[in-house]
Predict the structure.
Amino acid sequence: MKLRYILAYLTVSSIFVLSQPLPATAQQNSEASKANVQETAQRDGQHDFDPLIGSWKFHLKRRLNPLTGSTTWVEFEGTGVCYKVWDGRAELDTVELDGPTGHIEGLTLRLYNPQSHQWSLYWANSKDGAITDPPQIGEFKNGHGEFLAQMMKNGRAILVKYDWTNLNTNSPHFEQSFSDDGGKTWEANWITDQTRVRDEADKAH
């Protein structure tokens, strides 16, 4: 009789012990939860493009006939202004450039999605009055913004990549690159360096 009670007690005790989470597992789950919360907080990038707000001088290097083996570049100079919309969750960035191959007048519309924590970038050129579709989509990590899309060029689909760096300086740097091999290799074709133009209020100080 006593043996039966002892066995029953041991069985119940074993079930209770096995049902409890191990300290190491509980700690790992807790750390993973904290990491997920921190990652979510870090990915809130609705003000990533705020440093571009204001007036700028632009220097552009543009590769002629990209993805053809061309190594011929032309250079442009110009000015632009970036405007904040929706408290930084959207921006309009305008630019006018002149170079040996003509005049470029364009704008970029940037829209932030608070659910995905990503930006959509749309480019429009005054020559055709059309906006790029689909947009470049991406985000910033460690100060580097990378945005990707697919487009048709010369009858075939290629990948397009935007790279933004040095935004928190007075010399932001932008590069556009194409890939016709699925992203294995990239060829830059549009490189801009900006220099901030101080407004009259700044010059007075």
In short: The longest strand covers residues 73-85. DSSP finds three helices and eleven strands in the chain. Residues 105 and 127 are 8 Å apart (CA to CA).
